[in-house]
Amino acid sequence: MNCKLLVGTLFILAFSAPAFSQEDKPPVLRPGRTLESNVPKSYTDSAEFLKLFNDFYPTIKPSLTVREQAEVDFKAIARTFKMQGIDSAEAAKAAYKNLDDSAFYKIYFQTYRKNLSAKELKKYREFISTPEGKHITEVWGSLQRVLSDANVYVARTVNTNLTPIRQAAREKMEKEQPPRKPGQGMAPPKLQSPNRDVQDANKSGYPIRGTRGDVFDQNNSASSDSLMRMQRLQNKIPPVVIPVDSTHVR
After folding, report:
1. Can you give the pTM of this predicted structure?
2. Together in a domain, 48 and 157
3. How far apart are CA 9 and CA 7, in angstroms?
4. CA-to-CA distance for 141 and 3, rounded, in angstroms?
5. What angle do CA 40, 44, 49 make, to 5 degrees?
6. 11 with 59, same domain?
7. Total structural domains within the chain
8. What is the Cα 105 distance to its own chain's centre?
9. Are the CB atoms for 188 and 206 separated by under 8 Å?
């Protein structure tokens, strides 16, 4: 994007408050279709603005035409056509179809018309014609990147300061758990269940598929909480004693 277009934001903040907040948003430009002429909402300064913009546009318009820019973009993506089996000539016909040669003018006009009044456009034009305005235009890219550069500094400083802590933690982990040698397999897992029948069934320490421990064992990770609660409840409830009717005992 032309730097002179970007510098308009700085100029507006310095010379005026936002204007035309009641404007309707310009229609979205749909890619692949001929751009329609945008007829903005009527303003009291429309005639003056149009005259100022037409005089101003030659100084801010892109160095390439719409067609030339399209050719640059097409060449950048045409390198992959051969491996995709796409004919470049046929692709070019499709790529440039409905390309509006006045698209740059329309987009620039819509942007300036939406954000500036005729008075502000005149002031902006005068501003970038001064030595100060020209210099700001030249360095505008750097001014736009200042926040990003500041955030990168903070992120890099934090990561640099954390490097010794990460290194110490890594060395401690490697000391406590040395890396395995090539070809060395994983150690067999130890059974955590106190069920001796299961452990005795396999002296190597490997669990036996299908073998189940005591589901009521609180140390058994596979036990069901509801079953354990049921057993505890049953152990606490005394057995029910049914009274015997002595009148029927002979």
Report:
1. 0.48
2. no
3. 5
4. 7
5. 70
6. yes
7. 3
8. 33
9. yes
